[in-house]
Amino acid sequence: MNSTQETWLVTGASGCIGAWTARTLVREGVEVVALDRSADDRRLRMIASDDERARIVSVQADITDLAALERILAEHAITHVVHLAALQAPFCRADPPAGAMVNVAGTTNLLEAIRRHGLTTPLAYASSAAVYDAAGEAFAPTTVYGVYKIANEGTARIYWQDHQVASIGLRPLIVYGPGRDQGMTASPTEAMFAAAQGDPFTITFGGSTQLQYAPDAARAFVDAARRPAAGADVFNLGGPDVSVPEIVAAIEAAVPGAEVAFDDVALPFASRLPEPWFDMPVTPLEQGVRETIEVFARMASGAAA
Asked: Which CATH superfamily is domain 3-173+213-238+269-282 in?
């Protein structure tokens, strides 16, 4: 299929990866329908020009509304779907029923709407490193958020088994970059924002991890949705091991004199995801940190994206 014939639905489009996915697609010249229950487009405004935003069709809807999803898929003749709508781990912990309604029932609604729509391309959806135990070795989540993600992976598998609805789930570890301002692992990006503002900041964890730059993660979801429909696959997003002191050093290199510290506290999940990893671009840490801080500095000056 030629990209000019594609029409994409991006759920959770007001989130970090959602905004980057919409921008990635609109820059390719394809039709983009951005779905979110919120009308807040501040993350997209960080990274996309006025012209780019004008070419994105925004739809305010809730993924817990199956009829609305069916209608949107049909009215816009959707050919590809990237599903990123979810409540983050802290929100799920604070209100588990609401988290299950959005993360589990909402994903099931989308799979059912896709089945009825007859989508022939795989649904690309966000799972999470939270499906693993703290060692990254077994499927034994330590949060309800991780339990919900395991449920989604299982539901996707059954939709392929019973209905041949294809899907590819991607499990990020820690995504960083402009727009990453929610969730327990947003701290490195918050440190970059503080450095751009000239404020001190303490990252809330230590140790080492794998960071995925938000534009790279968005590209991975787009590439996944363009793969042949061949099952219900799930891949981890990998990348080089990065220590928190290295993150601090990259911030200080981009902003000499930045005051960034960190708490030597381990995160409650894996520091590294097992292979095989999804084939995706990997922007060097120093470049990603520099570009992120440049966006934040431009925001502070009032300059356009």
From this structure: NAD(P)-binding Rossmann-like Domain (3.40.50.720)
